[in-house]
Amino acid sequence: MRRYRVLIIGFGNVGQAFFRLLSMKKDAFNADVQVSEIIDRRRGHIINPGPNVVDEARSGRLLGRRIDIDEVPQLIEESDADIVCEFTDLNIRDRGEPAFTYLSTAIRSGKHVITTNKGPIAFHYDELMELSRRYNRLVRFKGTVMAGTPSFNVLELLPGASVNYFMGILNGTTNFILTRMYEGMSFNEALRIAQERGYAEADPSLDIDGWDAALKAIIISRVLGWRHSLEGMEVRGIRDIDIRAFGDKIVKLIAFANKDVAYVKPMALDRGDVLAHVNENLNALRIGTDTLGDIMVIGPGAGPMETAQAVLTDLAYIINRGY
Ligand SMILES: NC(=O)c1ccc[n+]([C@@H]2O[C@H](COP(=O)([O-])OP(=O)(O)OC[C@H]3O[C@@H](n4cnc5c(N)ncnc54)[C@H](OP(=O)(O)O)[C@@H]3O)[C@@H](O)[C@H]2O)c1
To answer: What is the pLDDT of residue 200?
Structure first.
């Protein structure tokens, strides 16, 4: 059986959930997939992690050799892994760095890459695709949009179909807040509950001001060959929203794009629209195609285990292509 060694970079919620899910679902692959290395800022450089590494990682203490963050690219280059799974934090201010450097170093040193980090894909799509072609290595990023719920990857099942537009609810935190507001809660109260449940970040502005949904819309657009970027997009969130102003309609934070325009903003939907009834922290994506008309997917859009499923999907894609 073909053996694949995996290097994990970033061993927080998603990294740990992926390690656990992989050990539970080993039989899903027609290959022997082993995590051979972990690199994490706090937990250090762990070689051949044992089965208890997730329990040990919870404390956040050092579990391997202490690393200087500047040496990570060199560690990636020297690693004998076949696949690098990158799960470090999103960094908008630095336009997806240092994750982009990690991914490009991995490809240049002959490794396939999988990431759940929106930054490097939204800001460096062209460079990563060019590296992928030049080095014949795959770049997969399903976990960046709607976690393990099929989203842009459904198009792999629809050869020949072209997409006219997409629109969706791509941020679970704001959808949860709006759902609670329709039940009578204030914005602040709903946000506090979203934070308590771990849906929203301690600094929730990425979610509530629309940036998270905007990056996801850019990623889907890039997959479709549309050249939208954050600079050219209207991005509005739900911070000061008054749901009563939308009358009988239901307001949702909608991400929309076609080849000419992309935006994220609160939109009033007719009660007959399925999207108006996608509640709680669920996500939904409607894709308008020339061959099928509209198709729609609804499902979880975040969560460590849900995102780990996306990584398994990407792993299976690489393995099934016989690399
Ligand atoms: N959680 C979700 O539901 C979800 C869903 C979809 C996508 N994502 C994306 O997946 C990625 C990981 O999310 P997460 O929830 O696992 O985050 P997390 O719990 O904060 O874990 C990130 C880990 O990466 C480490 N790290 C940060 N920068 C690093 C660097 N330069 N080199 C090495 N290690 C570094 C962090 O160390 P420190 O502890 O020192 O910070 C932390 O252990 C993010 O980009 C996130 O946006 C998450």
So the answer is: 76
Q: CA–CA separation, 267 vs 251, rounded Å? A: 5
Pocket mutation for ligand 1, best pick of 16, 41, 86 (most atoms within 8 Å of C-beta)? 41
Is beta strand 262-269 parallel, antiparallel or unpaired with respect to 250-258? Answer: antiparallel
Choose the catalytic residue: 111, 216, 252, 265. 216
Instruction: Report which protein residue has its CA nearest ligand 1's atom 25.
Output: 10
What confidence tens digit (pLDDT) does each residue in 149-163 have?
999 999 999 999 999
Q: Where are the domains of the chain?
A: 3-148+304-320, 152-300
Q: How far is the CA of 58 from the centre of ligand 1 (A)?
A: 14
Of 87, 115, 283, the residue with max ligand 1 atoms within 8 A of its CB, to mutate for a pocket test, comes to: 87
- For the stretch 18-32, pLDDT in tens is 999 999 999 999 999
- Is the pTM higher than 0.90? The answer reads yes
142 has catalytic annotation: no
In terms of Cβ atoms closer than 10 Å to its own Cβ (0-12, 13-18, 19+), residue 120 is: buried
**What fold is seen in the domain 152-300?**
Dihydrodipicolinate Reductase; domain 2 (3.30.360)
